């Protein structure tokens, strides 16, 4: 089952607070596209449309209702950086290495640029994609690609703690807020303020907002209704 279909299946379920993306095993988060992945007999248009699946993946990450968190459990190269930068939060093990080595293969990281430029500074992205050099998790955090890095021995404990934090929050309000954050980022300032004013009113009228305020006043944990 593809990552796109899994995101649609789980990312839009009312009871799910957040979706976590990680790599299989513990060696790599994702090493990028398989350069030998297209048979010689495939047509130019067939290959072109197949590559469009990656653009669809990045669009899906943007459009899914639930927050998407990247758990970078190993090295991440090429398209993996597009996935990480498209996610809302990214946590990495400190041994992971990062990079966009496409330029060294006579290619250019076209589709991930839009995600990278929304996450990192223009000059840092240009340095990264023009030179194609590897860099550490420490630098990835410094560049704005990661929220946090943890030593391997406590990485699992910290990621489990993050999952627990999300499980204690209202799935409905997380989805509402995440959607609002993503929709307003391409608006101009006045459009964004008008839109967010409306979304605040919608938020305030939800059952979970009423429950959250009541629980705060009664000094107890909220019992979310998911609506």
Distance between the terminal alpha carbons, to the nearest Å? Answer: 30 Å
Total beta strand runs: 8
How much helix is in the residues? 40-55%
Which H/E pattern describes the elements? HEEHEEHEEHHEHEHHHH
Structure class: alpha/beta
Q: Overview of this structure, please?
A:
With 227 residues, this protein is of the alpha/beta class. Helix content is 52%, strand content 12%. It contains 10 helices and 8 strands. The strands form 2 sheets. A 4-stranded parallel beta sheet has the order 1-3-5-8.
Summarize the structure.
With 227 residues, the protein is of the alpha/beta class. Helices cover 52% and strands 12% of the residues. It has 10 helices and 8 strands.
Defining key terms:
227 residues; alpha/beta; four-stranded parallel beta sheet; four-stranded mixed beta sheet; 10 helices; 8 strands; globular
Furnish the topology, listing elements before pairings.
Blueprint: H1 3-11, E1 19-22, E2 28-30, H2 44-63, E3 68-72, E4 75-77, H3 79-86, E5 89-93, E6 97-99, H4 113-119, H5 122-131, E7 135-136, H6 137-143, E8 148-150, H7 152-167, H8 171-184, H9 189-204, H10 207-217
Parallel strand pairs: 1-3, 2-4, 3-5, 4-6, 5-8
Antiparallel strand pairs: 6-7
